[in-house]
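Technical note accompanying the year-one report. For the benefit of new consortium partners, we illustrate the data format agreed upon in the data management plan: each record pairs a sequence with a structure-token string. No post-processing was applied to the example shown here.
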Amino acid sequence: MREKDIEEYLRKEVKKAGGKAYKFESPGNDGVPDRIVIFPGNNIFFVELKAPGEKPRPLQVKQMRDLTNFGCSVSVLDSKKRVDQFVDLMKRL
């Protein structure tokens, strides 16, 4: 399964659950997470998507650490199962 397929699955599942999954691009800030996921109630999450078994690159780890240090929630999802778990958790918030 490709990262692109997991990203598309996330987008569709978040939409079905009542949220939005915006593509996140920040010129001049390489390594930022792929998506900003927003659910009702001011629930905002950064999501990095990976193909199964892949790990974030060092720059991505740094960017995620920086976001976490600002109090942001960051998740790495590498399968449809992990997407399902993420969306299920968000629906319970």
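Partners are asked to follow this layout when depositing records. Helices lie at 3-16, 58-69, 80-91.
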